[in-house]
Every structure is written in C-alpha cells, then in structure tokens.
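Troubleshooting entry. Yesterday's outputs looked truncated, so today I'm pasting the complete records for two proteins to confirm everything comes through intact. If either block looks cut off, that's the bug. Protein one:
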Amino acid sequence: MPLNRPALLLDASPRGVQDARRWVVDTCRAIGRDDLVECAELGVSELVTNALLHGRPPIQVRVRGTAEHPRVEIRDASQEPPELPRPSEPDDDVLLTFGRGLAIVARCSDAWGADVDAAGKIVWFVPAAEIQAGDGAEGIITGVERRAPEPPIDPVTIRLEGVPVPMFLGLAHHFDELRREVRLLSLAARSVYPVAEDLVSVFSSVDDGVRSSAMRRQIEDALASDAPVVDIDLDIPRALVGPIARLIDLLDLADEFCHQQRLLSLARTAEQRRFQQWYLGEVVRQAQGEEPRRFSASGAHSTSQRSAAS
C-alpha cells in the first residue's frame, strides 16, 4: 500500500514545500482519495513552511493512518510545540491572512495536532473533504510532558536471559511506532478504531514497567561492549502483570488489523512476534512463580539452571 512508503526527506528550502505537496497529492490519488487532494495539499504546504521557519532539520513528510482516514505527518527535530491558533473574528478570512498557517490547517482538517518526543515533534492532520467554516478542528498537543516513573509498588523481579540486543532494539522501535500510531489514530478516528483506544490504554500503563531506566542502562552497557546478548533484571509492579498479559493479545490483534490494512504500522515479522511473545510472556510466567526460560532464536526454550547452581 502507498501509505507504507518510507518518509520523504525534504530540502530545507522552498523546494521542500513543493516536493511535499506533490508527494502528498500523489499519495492521496494512489489510495483513491481524490476528494482529499485540495485540503491535503493546502495543509501540508502550511506545515512544511512552518517547519522550515520554526523547526529544525531534518524535516520529513509521510502519510499514515488508513485509506479511510489518512493522516499527513511532518516531522522535524525541534521539540518546541506549535502554538495553537487563536479563535478567528467573524469577518476574519483565515485563508487570505498571512501568518495564519496553523489556523489554515485547522480549517483543512477533520483532526490535527502535534506529538512531541525525544527526537523532536510530529505535526499531523487528517485532511477534510472540504475546507471547513469557522475555526475548524481543534488542535491536540501530546507528549509535551512525560512524568518520571515512580518506584514500583509490590515489585516482582523478572530475569530475562539471553536477550539479543538487536532484537530488543527492534522491539523498542516497534513499540514506539505502534504506540504513536494508535495514539494518533485514536485521536483522529476514535469511534472507528476501538482497538486503538484499547492499545493506548494498555501502552500507557505498561510502558515504563517493561522498559525501565535500569534496563536501558543494561542495554547501553551491552552496546558499549559490543555484546550481542545480554541478561536483564527488571523490577515491575505486580499490578502490571495483568495489563502485560492483555498486551500480548492486543499486539496479535494489531497485527491482524495491519494485515487487513486497517492499521498502517507494519505488522510484526514472525521473528519479531516470537521475541515479543517470549519477552512479555516471561514477565507473566515469572510473576506467577515460574523459573526463567532463556530466549532461543529457534523457538526452543530451556529452563534456567540459575537456582540449581546456587
């Protein structure tokens, strides 16, 4: 599907606006959404111009979401969130007013907003079929603040043995991509995609638990020493075990939605799915008192001899 094409890297010049406009228009037509071309073209022009004036390179454009609800995203390296437009006066024709780029985006959108993360920000919009009257859609800004995780209550210690470092990094990347995708999809079309709302809720509750700062330090140490495999000790609140078990099922459901082209994050490969099921499954198993099982790329697992050797 065209919506799974890689992001387009833009020149930090007026040519970047032209390239983004042409690329988004071609994508809309390729997925049979000629009705969105006018608003998509106008909205992406304004967002790329805004990124050139106020953001930092690299600047990229891509289209995500679904064919029914495509979402145009502009990423740049600045973490400064956009300033939401002020309400217009009754006689204020926003489409003829210089410097009102985000107000124009609001008029061209069914939904729009910005998502700020450690790498910068994504400003996104869901093109409308026609330019809206009034102030248009209200902008939504997410990710500006992320509270530090608190020490776990009633912790359970999990030992993950034989974790392949490249697979773990791939898991972290997939989680980040899927979490952002379902969060923005739930904001843009919540009633149409209830699985997105379920995933948002579960992700928000388990993410700090399955990717703690201590665990990140262990991965960083492995990378610094070029170790291909690492053992990870992880303390999580016992209350997260249930949501993590639910996440295993929801990730399978998300894969099915991807295969049906109802979510446009790529479905996991068989290798990714096997590793993630082992990773999350170990948390559930060990919280129930079972011994660690070392990861095996072949799919065969052996019970740890740690307790027998001690």
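Protein two, checking that the full record survives here as well:
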Amino acid sequence: MKNDKTTKNVIEISSILEEKNRKKATEPTEASGPMVISISSGKGGVGKTNIVANLGYTFSKMGKKVLIFDADLGLGNLDILLGLTPKYNLSHFILGEKKMEEIIVEGPSGMKIIPAASGIKELAHLSKEDKVPIFRKIDELVNQFDIFMIDTAAGISNNVLQFSAIAQDVLVVVSPEPTSLTDAYALIKVLSYHYGVSKFNLVINMVKSIKEAEDVYNQLKMVTGRFLNVSLNYTGHVLSDEKIPKGVKRQKIVSDIYPESPSSLCFKPLAENILKIKREKRNLEASNFMWGNILNY
C-alpha cells in the first residue's frame, strides 16, 4: 500500500514537472545582458536628445551602469547638452587614431558617453561596412554596462534606420504636433517593412497633460493598427516645462538642477517602464547586437 502511494506521488510530481517544462519551452525567453535601446524620432525638434540625457541620468541615479552612444554621427550634440568638452570623438576612432576606450567621456551621475563628431560630413554618410567595426568594438565594451542607449539622428536616413534596427528595443519620441506624428509613422513604417522591427515603444514629449499624451498615443496607434502589422506600446510621457530650455542654456540636465519640476518628475516613471519592457532572447551568436545584419540591409 505504501509502495502504491509512493508510486502515485512520483507519477504526479513527474507530470507537474513535465507540464512546467512544456510551458517554459513555449514561453519567450527574456534576453540576458545589457538592455540595448535606440531612441529615435521621425522629425527633429521633439526633444529626443534631451530625453536621452535625462533618462541616462535617471538610470544612473537608479544604480544602473549606463553607456550612451551619440549616433548622430555628423551633427552630434549630446556632449554639448551635457556641458562636456570631449578631447576626442568617434572620428578619432574611425581614423584609427584612438581606441574606443580613449574617446569615452563621463557625464553627470557617472553615465558614460561615446561622443560623435560635429560638422564632419563624411561621418554622416558612413558605409555599412564602415559601421561594423564600430559595433564590434562597442560589443566588446557593452557587457560592462546595464544599459546601452543609442541616440540616433532624426528622420529616416540609413544611419537612423540601421542603428535603430540593431537595438533590442526601439523608443520613438513624438510631440503633439501633427508633423511629428506623420514623421513618426513614416519611421515606424520603414523600420517595419525593410528592417523587420515589429515592436515599438512610444514616448510622448512636451505635452500639457497625461490626457494629451494618451490622445497622441491613441492617434498613432489607430493608424499603425490599421495599416501596419506592428505592436505599439505606450511607454510614458514628459510634460512641457519652462525649466527645460533654462537647463539647456546652462548645459545642465533638468532632472539634476530642477529635480522637482514637472518634466523632471516624469523621468523616473518613464525609466521604470522601460526597465519593465519584456525582451525576447535573440539568436545573436553570443553578441549583444545584430551589427552583422546591417550588411544585409
């Protein structure tokens, strides 16, 4: 009788374990390693780089190790926004004059920045092959960090599209302006059709209220839902704030010098929402990036 009971228990436990393993096999596996996030916008003037800077600062304050790549290669301005004066930039790495480690600079709260050059036309038109060494080197460094952010240029140039396509998560920054929505839709459409990106995370900037942010999201979601086969996630918003231009003039992050301002209070919830994004594991052959795939586009 005792043996029969033991046998029954073993069978039940085995069945439970089999069911758990079956479920586990069918569920998406979350990616390990650093979060790789691109931050893009369909048009300029929507405050994208300001959001990147404040998010980097916020993540750092949350105890995360952050590396930001200014991927607006020919017109980089993240360092200017942060009040930094890098001695070297990406052009020195591309020309073989400096190692990547030598051009990285430290920003507020300890976040690290790979500065782009400004005013060098050739950098804005790098070939796909020229970009591969950049990402190979970054790939070697990025495991030292928790979050790697790619601040792309605005628009749908090859640079923007390729840098967005290698990221695990794509954040699209929009403002309430109709032109911003139109251009954001164009960016999402091209990344979806030509680069196979199916998930987008929307950040609505410069809104007067949460209601306005939700309206903007719903407008874009309605259009993408009708014409595109993509998932659009509402990730957060940043309120319009007179303190932001004051911070820009001082080359300081608004979250740092005006921590209680309306916009500053939006960044921690936004950062927390980004950290909650479920990342599916990709077959990257031990690489954090899909840099090899840019040669296919």
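Both blocks look complete. Sanity check on protein two: The longest strand covers residues 199-207.
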